[in-house]
Amino acid sequence: MEKDLNWREFLITRLIKFSGYSAIIFVSLIFFFLLKEGLPTLAEVPLGDLFSLRWYPIESRYGILPLITGSLLVTVGAGLIAVPFGIGTAIYLAEIAPRWVRNLLKPLVELLGGLPSVVLGFLGILILSPTLRVTLNLPTGLTALTGSLLLGGIAIPTVVSISEDALDAVPKSYRDAALALGATRWQTIWRVTLPAARSGVLTAVMLGVGRSIGETMTVMMVTGNAPVLATGLADLFSPVRTMTATIAAEMGEVANASTHYHVLFFIGMVLFLISLFVNVTASAIVFRQKKRAERILS
Amino acid sequence: MKNKIVIENLTLQYSDGTESLNGISLEIPANATTVLFGPAGGGKSSLLRCLNRLNDLADVESVSGRILLDGEDILDLKMDVTALRRKVGMVFARPVVLPFSIRGNLTYGLELAGEKRKSRHDEAVERSLKLAALWEEVHDRLDDPAIALSGGQQQRLCLARSLALEPEVLLLDEPTSGLDPISTSKVEEALDELKKQYTVILVPHSVQQAARTSDYAAFFLQGKLIEYAPGTDIFTNPQHQRTEDYVTGRFG
Q1: Residues of chain A contacting B165 with CB distance shorter than 8 Å
Q2: Same domain, A27 and A47
């Protein structure tokens, strides 16, 4: 009996330990695979060509710059939509809404987050893009703006859910104190509650942005996929092509171990580095704030 | 003796049916310390939070009766709650310093009220810190983060923060419950000084403190006002059996 228990204990702890380490193993395997398949690009395509403006693989033109700007443009657009809307919704849910509204809305918002992106892509193609084409009088409705709007919709639930948790965690005594000093409800939210929940809200924004930049299906369906260099926000109204959509669209047809194949992996590496950068920046900011709070408290 | 606040037949019910107030009538005189005391759950804090309408955000089922501040009914829906809260300052049981500097905490209420002149800020900072008996300890480090102060200093900072707005009434909900005896006596001394200018309403954290600080005292039990009398009477010669039992420590 005693021995049996020990044996089970041993097995279970080992299993849990393995699950913990497996994340590290998978990430490093993925990273090494990306490097192995992507790095040959640097030997096959001169750097000047790689960062040129023309993506036309059939004629061996591998300029990935339009793809990078395409991704950035769509993501920035999505962020401009998702951040104010998401934080606004979170504030409404956490601070203003009556309890029953909150109990109804929060699960609905989270349901929205679980919606498959292909379904949103459908809505984009069938409803959003014709509407945009007609109302804005554009040659085509498949533009970066269409992608931004949909991606914003995808990122909003993430932003709402996490920043609402952060706002909800701010002690009630802070609000009481501000209100008792004669702050209005809005002044309390803007000057006390939101700053106190700062790090959580920032995490929410970063995760939302991370979600948009990695999103593939929707943008492939609605952004028009024209690899044209985007130079400013005005290009929101023309078609773009993102890094993710390029990989998804071309990976199936590329010859194994060809230059084109290697470049696609190289794009994957760039994508990986961008999301790594976003994550590291976010945790650095949150960490710095924590350090400061600890220093003051000690 | 002028009455600052007159409460008429105030009844309050929370939506979950817990702590409530039952037909409270009370006249609170100006320039004196009125103490609300009694065992936990008696409605003292609820009453205090009615006086600056901080209960607006709680799950209150119904409120009836009137609370007259200088003859004006503050429960009236047309009442400007923000202006009321500037007139009726409040200090909580646990010091809640806002995440700013010491000076920032003190000027916060003024900024909210739209006061931008720096000279007025500086004047308010010095005056309120002196009133709260904190000036000597912090005057050379006003720009340090307020969170770095000790618990007792933080509580006096919260007191000063209310005073910076020059309120007419000061509500204190167990302001010394988390403080050591030395800090407690500093706060009590400050309050004794303050009642010359303000109407002070205090929920003490012990009967001893109630006896020490009160000019008038009201004994609450389970949402009802049992007895209201000058402090010297209620603690030496209570009229009701329940009051006597509580004051002499037989229950509570």
Answers
A1: 181-182
A2: no
CB contact under 8 A, A181 and B82: no
The predicted structure's pLDDT at residue B252: 61
Look up the CATH architecture of domain B3-247: 3-Layer(aba) Sandwich (3.40)
Which residue among A173, A191, A195 sits closest to B92, beta carbon to beta carbon? A173
In B, which residues are within 8 Å of A176 by CB distance? 54, 90, 92, 96
Phi, psi at residue A217, to the nearest 5°?
Answer: -60, -55
Tell me: do A10 and A80 sit in the same domain: no
Contact B98 A192 (CB under 8 A): yes
* A195 part of contact set with chain B, CB < 8 Å: yes
- C-alpha–C-alpha distance, residues A102 and A92, integer Å: 9
Global confidence as pTM: 0.75
Q: Does B58 touch chain A (CB under 8 A)?
A: no
ipTM of the complex: 0.76
Helix (H, G, I), strand (E, B) or coil at B225: strand
Residue B82 touches chain A, beta carbons under 8 Å: yes
**E strands present in chain B:** 3-14, 21-29, 33-37, 60-69, 72-73, 88-91, 169-173, 199-203, 216-221, 224-230
> Structural domain of residue A24, as residue ranges?
2-38
User: For the segment A180-210, what is each residue's pLDDT rounded down to a tens digit?
Assistant: 888 888 888 988 889 888 888 988 998 888 8
Q: Look up tokens 């998804």; give the residue.
A: A248
| Mean pLDDT per 10-residue segment, chain B (252 residues) | 86 77 90 90 87 81 86 86 89 85 90 85 90 88 88 89 91 86 86 89 90 91 89 86 85 66
- Residues of chain A contacting B98 with CB distance shorter than 8 Å: 174, 177-178, 192
Lookup: tokens for A37: 């398949």
φ, ψ of residue B39 in degrees (nearest 5): -65, 165
Q: What is the pLDDT of residues A16-57, one digit of tens each?
A: 999 999 999 998 999 899 999 999 988 888 888 888 888 888
